[in-house]
Design brief:
Layout: E1 5-10, H1 16-25, E2 30-34, H2 39-43, E3 47-52, H3 69-73, E4 78-81, H4 83-91, E5 95-111, E6 124-137, E7 142-148, E8 155-158, E9 163-166, H5 178-189, H6 198-212, E10 216-220, H7 225-237, E11 242-248, H8 256-266, E12 272-275, H9 277-284, H10 290-316, E13 319-323, H11 328-339, E14 361-363, H12 371-380, H13 385-388, H14 408-427, E15 436-450, E16 453-466, E17 474-475, H15 480-493, E18 497-502
Parallel strand pairs: 1-2, 1-3, 3-4, 4-9, 10-11, 10-13, 11-12, 13-14, 16-18
Antiparallel strand pairs: 5-6, 5-7, 7-8, 8-9, 15-16, 16-17
Helix pairs in contact: 6-7, 6-12, 7-12, 9-10, 14-15
Bound molecules: xanthosine-5'-monophosphate (XMP).
Xanthosine-5'-monophosphate is lined by residues 346, 348-350, 392, 394-396, 436, 470, 507, 511-513.
Length: 515
């Protein structure tokens, strides 16, 4: 993308993505790169300022990450945060030392000079600290502009106004005026004007697709936000070239396939719908192990998609591309994953993860965007709210919400119970207040009494969580009257269920899905 970029260099802090989010929220385009990204790829982005993230290292560690030379050579404004500040000071000739006054959590900041990043800010406010080393001696030409009880150099700058450094984390919400500090750095110190809005972006992406795409494009459309936004972009750019494929696995929510087809018809997009449910049920026959289920669903999906894509290629001849709804966090994560092997909790299967063997060029128009930006973009492009704010749904679908073996009968029961839960959440205006809500079918039967009869039937567990990003989650404190009402409806209306329970575990230690 050809636009001026604020380059955030990642030194490994858990907050690095937040820096990027804040900068973009302020209306400036930013990209995140590893601290040792080579000069050429940084240059390609037309950098206009650097922000150096925090990180777990100490500048005196043997392999401590260093700020690349091109940052100093560039003459661009630089803001170092936490480790970023320490590395800046260390490499410019100052001194950083292990401190006996470690600071973790809130600290009172006292601004001693209201310049640059602190213009128009109060004298004192609370900031979020997380460090053990601290700056002890400033490089030549630097001055202190704020201090805290345990950090005499809590914020510094060079007198030529080019380098700024803060020991605290302006990117976290617990830092008061954090956003103003970043804004001041960008607008006052770096003298930049905002260049990042969804209206511009929608326009640019459509233009870019129009310019670059010369053959037909297939897209695995799941009805989720990401693939839907990709579909809209391609439709706006080159309506006659888009071939969206919807694979009905038979493991979707009640009526989902039909609804997706219908919703897209209304915005003028015809979906190529494939009912592959038989193949999925066959693949899942007698399989209980969650990882095995995921694997089989993943493979079946790839097979079905591949066969269909090849058929379409024969019919249409000129299919050149496969579009995918890959997002920026996936890109960042895969970059990070190349460095560290993270502990694997579950094999996530996405429509996005497919196509190594497909003979198409991949296009990923959302690869620089975060989820909320994708939603904003979708809104700009005219996608209905029912798609934009739909709860996340796992690739393996209801198969991971049926504990034990997956049968059509089990899917039917679960779909009915789930549909009641979701319908009531919407009626009670709770749907948009939770991150995700769904029903789970348990592999146990329990005794009940209905009328004068003993019953021995299935248990449905309801799960609803609040979350920012799905990484951590809390169980949703839904009103008792609501849960009561939903449980009654499920037991009364869904044949084969005589008991409903509510999951009150957070993540961690549980995960959001049950498998
Ligand atoms: P867990 O269960 O890991 O889920 O706490 C976190 C979020 O990820 C979704 N999820 C998946 N999404 N493919 C997906 O595309 C998957 O295999 C998958 N497994 C879980 C889950 O619904 C929640 O939003």
């Amino acid at each position: 993308m050809e636009r001026k970029t604020v380059v955030v260099l990642d030194f490994g802090s858990q907050y690095t993505q937040l820096i990027l989010r804040r900068v973009r929220e302020l209306g400036y385009y930013a990209e995140l790169l590893p601290y040792d990204e080579p000069l050429e790829s940084v240059q390609r982005l037309s950098p206009v300022a650097f922000i150096l993230s925090g990180g777990p290292s100490s500048v005196y560690d043997e392999n401590a990450p260093k700020i690349p030379k091109y940052v100093f050579d560039s003459n661009l404004p630089v803001l170092g945060i936490c480790y970023g500040l320490q590395a800046l000071v260390h490499q410019l000739g100052g001194k950083v030392e292990k401190s006996s006054h470690r600071e973790f959590g809130p600290a009172q900041l006292e601004v001693v000079k209201h310049v640059g990043i602190f213009e128009r800010l109060p004298n004192k406010f609370t900031v979020w600290m997380s460090h053990s080393d601290r700056v002890e001696v400033l490089p030549n030409g630097f001055e202190v502009i704020a201090k805290s009880e345990n950090s005499p150099y809590a914020a510094v700058r060079s007198s030529n106004n080019r380098y700024y450094g803060v020991q605290f984390h302006p990117e976290v919400v617990h830092t008061q005026y954090g956003k103003e500090i970043l804004k001041n750095f960008l607008s006052i110190v770096a003298n930049l004007s905002p260049n990042w809005s969804m209206t511009n972006l929608a326009h640019e992406l459509v233009e870019e697709i129009r310019r670059k795409i010369d053959g037909k494009v297939i897209l695995g459309l799941s009805g989720g936000v990401d693939s839907s936004v990709v579909a809209m972009l391609l439709h706006k750019a080159t309506p006659d070239k888009l071939i969206p494929i919807f694979v009905d696995t038979g493991l979707l929510r009640k009526n989902e396939g039909k609804e997706v087809v219908e919703q897209f018809k209304q915005v003028g997009i015809d979906i190529h719908y494939i009912d592959a449910s038989n193949r999925f049920f066959e693949a899942l026959e007698k399989i209980e192990d969650p990882e095995e289920k995921r694997k089989r669903i993943g493979h079946t999906f790839i097979d079905v998609f591949y066969e269909e894509a090849m058929k379409l290629k024969e019919q249409h001849g000129d299919i050149e591309y496969l579009a995918q709804g890959t997002l920026y966090p996936d890109i960042i994560e895969s970059k990070v994953a190349e460095r560290k092997a993270g502990a694997k909790i579950k094999t996530h299967h996405n429509v996005g993860g497919l196509p190594e063997k497909l003979p198409f060029k991949i296009i990923e128009p959302l690869r620089y965007l975060f989820k909320d930006e994708v939603r904003a973009l979708g809104k700009e492009l005219g996608l209905p709210e029912s798609i934009l704010y739909r709860h996340p749904f796992p690739g393996p679908g209801l198969a991971v919400r049926i504990i034990g073996t997956v049968t059509r009968e089990a899917v039917n029961i679960l779909q009915e119970a789930d549909a009641i839960f979701i319908e009531e959440l919407k009626k009670w205006d709770l749907y948009n207040k939770v991150w995700q809500a769904f029903a789970v079918l348990l592999p146990v039967k329990t005794v009940g009494v209905m009328g004068d009869y003993r019953t021995y039937e299935n248990v449905i567990a309801l799960r609803a969580v609040t979350s920012e990003d799905g990484m951590t989650a809390d169980w949703a404190k839904l009103p008792h009257e609501f849960l009561n009402h939903v449980a009654k409806r499920i037991v009364n209306e869904v044949r084969g269920v005589n008991r409903v329970v509510y999951d009150i575990t957070s993540k961690p230690p549980a995960t959001i899905e049950w498998e």
